[in-house]
């Protein structure tokens, strides 16, 4: 697996940063780690930082959509930050940009989400 997942918490927010390739080789591991983190320490909001991704395929989209659905079912919100241009294309084609909010940075997302401005 050529992917690193780092998580941190800020109040009720889980911030997960991905570095490397989110593909069919790494998707199941990422899915499992994020779900475990959400089960152990329930969060109402997930900020997914894609800034370190160099590649993402449909398996990666599945991971993102699945976590989005899980957070929504808990009454929370999930946003994506720091999306590389190459990954933006995949997101545009998939239609994820129509259902999720995107921000440049985690700080910007936290500010907006804490203020409830959207």
Which secondary structure elements does this structure contain, and how are they paired or packed?
Elements: E1 3-10, E2 13-22, H1 27-40, E3 45-56, H2 58-73, E4 77-81, H3 85-94, E5 101-103, H4 106-115
Parallel strand pairs: 2-3, 3-4, 4-5
Antiparallel strand pairs: 1-2
Helix pairs in contact: 1-2
Concise synopsis of the structure shown:
With 118 residues, the chain is α/β, with parallel strands linked by helices. The chain is built from 4 helices and 5 strands; from the N terminus they run E-E-H-E-H-E-H-E-H.
Structure explained in plain terms:
The structure is a single chain. With 118 residues, the chain is α/β, with parallel strands linked by helices. The protein has one domain: STAS domain (Transcription Regulator spoIIAA, 2-Layer Sandwich), CATH 3.30.750.24. Helix content is 42%, strand content 32%. It is built from four helices and five strands. It has a five-stranded mixed sheet. β3, α2 and β4 form a beta-alpha-beta unit. α1 runs parallel beside α2. The radius of gyration is 13 Å and the shape is globular. It starts with a strand and ends with a helix.
């Amino acid at each position: 697996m050529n992917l690193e997942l780092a998580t941190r918490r800020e109040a009720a927010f889980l911030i997960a940063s991905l570095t490397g390739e989110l593909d069919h080789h790494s998707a199941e591991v990422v899915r499992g780690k994020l779900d475990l983190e959400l089960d152990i320490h329930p969060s109402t909001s997930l900020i997914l930082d894609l800034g370190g991704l160099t590649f993402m395929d449909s398996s990666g989209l599945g991971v993102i959509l699945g976590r989005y659905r899980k957070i929504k079912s808990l009454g929370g919100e999930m946003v994506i930050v720091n999306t590389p241009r190459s990954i933006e294309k995949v997101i545009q084609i998939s239609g994820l940009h129509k259902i999720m909010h995107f921000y440049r940075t985690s700080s910007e997302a936290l500010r907006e989400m804490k203020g409830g401005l959207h």
